Amino acid sequence: MKQMLITGPNTLSGTIHIGGAKNSVVALLPATILAKGQSTIKNVPHISDVDALIDILELLNCKVSLNKDELTVDTTNLKNVPIGSNYANRLRASYYFMGALLGREKQVEITIPGGCNIGSRPIDIHIDGFKALGAVITKKNDKYIIKADKLIGTDIYLKFQSVGATINIMLASIYASGVTTIHNAAEEIEIVNVADFLNKMGAKIEGAGTNTITIRGVKDLQGTQISVIPDRIEAGTYVILGALCGKNLCIKNIIPKHIEALTNKLLEMGANLTINKDSIVISKAPLKPINIKTLVYPGFPTDIGQPMSVLLTQASGTSLFEETIWENRMGHVPSLNKMGANIKARDMHAIINGPTPLTGCEVIATDLRGGAALVLAGLIATGTTVITDIEHILRGYEDIIGKLTSVGAKIELKEI
Ligand code: EPU
């Protein structure tokens, strides 16, 4: 077990370089198996979710090699073996092997995926999509067996703009005969990254990034190369950190357009930031309270909501926060209140009164982004903050200790 120890308060200066997007790479890796041959993914972040996916690819007899941030997968000798709970449970995105294996092999056997405890996280929209393409699904306890004699393109209407279901249906329909149209598709930029990868392999996908995606079935795909887009959630987390305790803190290697929903809110609060072509420079400034409601892309991202709540504890006045995607994304609130925040959370709403000075103490990371929120809080708190259960944080933030230490943070990992 690992803990994080933070001594504060900190003032941070210098440059943080953002890595590849977790929520892109976790789909790009399973997508490699759709081409029979070798693909290379560049700008791969070193996070434990990637390690878990490499283990699944190796279980499937793919040859994987990682050289710095470049990962090569050779799927030539793929063996379609069942993916058991010890593999699938380690992360949410193991569900992309459903679509990818169904697409290539017309059959997959996989245990339900794991992931953060931020809601009930059903996968009914994915399953309905596979069924619409012609697959037959059998569920035995926590195992899915998904089979199809033939996959046939069709019109699929998603009842919610699910990121995972949109990508999974795209993966499953690549080799389907005819045309598949996904209506009410999610519009996240990570989906565009995956569609670009598949199109470079030879797929015929149009409309990724809009709410209508069409996939014309193809007969064959060739291995190719793709670069993972910058992680907008990692970027957003550190931009918020700059607003909390930055002194010309530069967040680099980003696409500012991808976090416009955040920067617009920060400007509304009176934050001191300069937006450049591929970076944002930000310093601490007095902040006004605001109201925030999380939405699907391009709205305010749910994954930045928890870090943002820390900033709202430092604004002068009352802010209202509403989460609309996940029913259990307030797990960090008891810890923030223990540190001195004044947050009243109920169901998916929170009222945050600020500014409140924060004091270091022992807190628990209940999930990935909630854990990141506690790191931000620890960096501005007076005294020592000890964060337990930090494995959640390491799933999605590459070298968080190294990146923060390089800009002056007093933060360390401790094995217990
Ligand atoms: N939903 C259903 N049925 C489904 C699928 C989703 O009811 O079959 C519901 C969910 O319960 C949720 C909503 O639809 O209320 C949105 O779920 P979505 O499918 O869009 O989420 P996801 O694909 O499972 C991805 C990210 C999440 C991010 C969401 C929303 C990955 C691996 N995860 O999850 O990232 O919050 O999209 O943007 O890409 C994170 O990085 O911390 C994280 C949780």
Detailed description of the structure:
There is one protein chain. The protein is of the alpha+beta class and 416 residues long. The protein folds into 2 domains: 2-19 and 231-415, Enolpyruvate transferase domain (UDP-n-acetylglucosamine1-carboxyvinyl-transferase, Chain, Alpha-beta prism), CATH 3.65.10; 22-227, UDP-n-acetylglucosamine1-carboxyvinyl-transferase, Chain, CATH 3.65.10. 32% of the residues lie in helices and 27% in strands. The protein has 14 helices and 23 strands. The chain has helices at 22-31, 48-59, 85-88, 96-105, 124-132, 163-173, 189-201, 232-245, 260-269, 302-312, 333-339, 368-380, 391-394, 400-405; strands at 2-8, 12-17, 38-42, 63-67, 70-74, 107-111, 136-140, 143-147, 155-157, 179-183, 204-206, 212-216, 225-227, 246-252, 272-275, 279-283, 291-293, 317-322, 342-346, 349-354, 362-364, 383-388, 411-415. The strands form 6 sheets. It has a 4-stranded mixed β-sheet with strand order 21-22-1-23. A hairpin with a 5-residue loop joins strand 11 (204-206) and strand 12 (212-216). Helix 5 runs parallel beside helix 6 (163-173). The radius of gyration is 21 Å and the shape is globular. It binds uridine-diphosphate-2(N-acetylglucosaminyl) butyric acid. Uridine-diphosphate-2(N-acetylglucosaminyl) butyric acid binds at residues 22-23, 26, 92-93, 116, 118-119, 121-126, 160, 162-165, 186, 233, 302-303, 325-326, 368-369, 396.
